[in-house]
């Protein structure tokens, strides 16, 4: 806590020194020429104050067109007017918003520092804009490019100064601020930078009347920001609706899976174990991260069709032929349930065919070999192995070694031979204990549907 307070105090001292240093440098560099012509000084000051009053807040970031005027001041007048205008424009808004003393200091130091930096960049690249010998540069495209560059640099510097203070006093990371506040508005800022450069070159070639185009710029800025706010609101509302819909859809599946788990904990633990096996085998055979996640989800849901089974079958120790006929419908029932969830078509397909055999003797479609989706072939191996080795099953459990021998025995007829060898190699390398049958806690952890709800609500990458 003491370290945090000390860090914040150091920040405030640094900001105070930055403010004093910027003002001191501006005073030292100041000359009477920088405040001429007076009509230009007066017009820029008035427009700067007006622009700052047209401020908008977008994602906690305050945006205004005052930067346009300040950059013109940096380029057309010089360091002293730029620093003075920067300080002047921040005073009314800070007072009206009743910001804290710390925010007062942060605003003043930022609006003194970045105008000074911008003006010094112009002076370094162009020279004294009031010197007649620099006229050929100030009326050229070079000057416009310099003004555009200064706009983008000072825009970034202003953000950096404010964001640093926010990071140190409120704990909001710089990366998050850049991602959520800085990057989204950059296309608009680049457009404003281009307009600022055009106005600067128009003034140096056509004189003061050209700057009355600033009024149009301010109006355009207000329109663009209002449109941006409407767009942000619509995007936020759409994301909220998408996440809500995904949550509702997944909520139905979650309820079914958990209800099935209450009816039969064996099925729940089997689902957790198969999900873990399936992800590991998918990784073993080189599947992508997305496909590994798909297999994990399909493993959790592969027996969801058993929700429709009556208790007399679900808990039976011995199954009749009629009972097996009912059980064989569960892949189709499960695929139908999962397929109604947006974005879960591939999962539904994996569930539908996970009881197919590579020799065509499986169900429900009698697919052969590679006609069976890879995900289904992986699920079949994982489910078969776990059923044989689990403590709770329709038969007495076998040892991992006997189960692996059985997998090899049915490979090429029931199961994919190459995948079986990959699965056994993985078990022998990692050890069967690593992939032990899941318990209740494993099932709850593996389910993790809340994360899935937000993930599937996001637009798919093009």
Give an overview in words:
A hairpin with a 2-residue loop joins strand 1 and strand 2. The chain is elongated. The protein has a two-stranded antiparallel sheet. The protein is mainly α.
Main sheet? Answer: 2 strands, antiparallel
* Secondary structure tally: strands: 2
Spatial ordering of strands, largest sheet: 1-2
Hey, roughly how much beta strand do the residues contain? Answer: under 5%
The gyration radius over C-alpha positions equals 34 Å
What gross morphology would you assign?
elongated
Name the helicity range.
Answer: over 70%
Average pLDDT figure: 81
Number of H/I helices: 21
Provide the low-confidence segments as ranges.
none
Distance between the termini: 46 Å
**Order of H and E elements:** HHEEHHHHHHHHHHHHHHHHHHH
Topology:
Elements: H1 2-29, H2 38-53, E1 56-58, E2 61-63, H3 66-76, H4 79-96, H5 101-126, H6 135-138, H7 141-170, H8 174-182, H9 186-206, H10 213-263, H11 265-284, H12 289-301, H13 311-314, H14 321-327, H15 330-339, H16 345-352, H17 374-389, H18 400-410, H19 417-430, H20 440-447, H21 449-457
Antiparallel strand pairs: 1-2
Helix pairs in contact: 1-4, 1-5, 2-3, 2-4, 3-4, 3-5, 3-7, 3-9, 4-5, 5-7, 7-8, 7-9, 9-10, 10-11, 10-21, 11-12, 11-17, 11-20, 12-16, 12-17, 15-16, 16-17, 17-18, 18-19
Which characteristics define this entry?
elongated; 462 residues; two-stranded antiparallel ribbon; 21 helices; single chain; mainly alpha
Provide a quick synopsis of the model.
The protein has 462 residues and is mainly alpha-helical. Helix content is 72%, strand content 1%.
């Amino acid at each position: 806590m003491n370290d945090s307070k000390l860090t914040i105090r150091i920040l405030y001292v640094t900001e105070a020194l930055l403010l004093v240093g910027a003002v001191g440098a501006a005073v030292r560099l100041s000359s009477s020429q920088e405040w001429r012509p007076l009509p230009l000084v007066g017009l820029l000051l008035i427009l700067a104050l007006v622009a700052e009053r047209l401020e908008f807040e977008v994602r906690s970031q305050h945006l205004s067109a005052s930067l346009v005027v300040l950059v013109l001041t940096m380029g057309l007048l010089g360091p002293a007017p730029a620093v003075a205008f920067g300080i002047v424009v921040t005073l009314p808004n800070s007072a009206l918003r009743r910001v804290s003393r710390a925010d007062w200091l942060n605003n003043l130091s930022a609006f003194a520092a970045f105008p000074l930096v911008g003006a010094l960049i112009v002076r370094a690249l162009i020279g004294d804009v009031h010197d007649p010998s620099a006229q050929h540069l100030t009326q050229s495209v070079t000057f416009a490019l310099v003004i555009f560059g200064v706009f983008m640099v000072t825009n970034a510097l202003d953000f950096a100064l404010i964001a640093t203070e926010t990071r140190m006093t409120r704990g909001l990371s710089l990366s998050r601020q850049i991602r959520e506040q800085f990057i989204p508005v950059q296309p608009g800022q680049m457009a404003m930078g281009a307009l600022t450069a055009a106005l600067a070159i128009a003034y140096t070639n056509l004189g003061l009347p050209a700057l009355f185009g600033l009024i149009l710029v301010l109006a355009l800025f207000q329109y663009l920001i209002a449109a941006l706010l409407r767009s942000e609101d619509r995007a936020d509302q759409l994301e909220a609706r998408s996440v809500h819909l995904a949550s509702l859809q997944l909520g139905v599946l979650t309820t079914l899976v958990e209800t099935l788990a209450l009816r039969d904990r064996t099925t729940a633990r089997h689902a957790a174990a198969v999900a873990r096996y399936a992800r590991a085998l998918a990784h073993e055979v080189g599947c992508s991260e997305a496909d590994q996640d798909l297999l994990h989800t399909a493993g959790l849901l592969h027996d969801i069709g058993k929700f429709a089974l009556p208790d007399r079958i679900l808990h039976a120790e011995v199954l009749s032929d009629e009972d097996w006929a009912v059980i064989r419908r569960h892949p189709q029932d499960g695929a139908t349930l999962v397929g109604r969830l947006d974005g879960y078509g591939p999962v539904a397909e994996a569930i539908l065919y996970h009881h197919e055999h590579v020799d065509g003797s499986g169900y429900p479609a009698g697919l052969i070999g590679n006609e069976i989706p890879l995900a289904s072939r992986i699920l079949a191996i994982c489910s078969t192995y776990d059923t044989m080795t689990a403590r709770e099953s329709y038969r007495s459990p076998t040892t991992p070694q006997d189960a692996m021998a059985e997998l090899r025995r049915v490979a090429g007829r029931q199961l994919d031979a190459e995948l079986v060898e990959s699965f056994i190699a993985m078990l022998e390398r990692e050890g069967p204990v690593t992939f032990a049958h899941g318990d209740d806690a494993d099932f709850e952890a593996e389910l993790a549907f809340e994360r899935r709800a937000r993930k599937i609500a996001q637009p798919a990458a093009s």
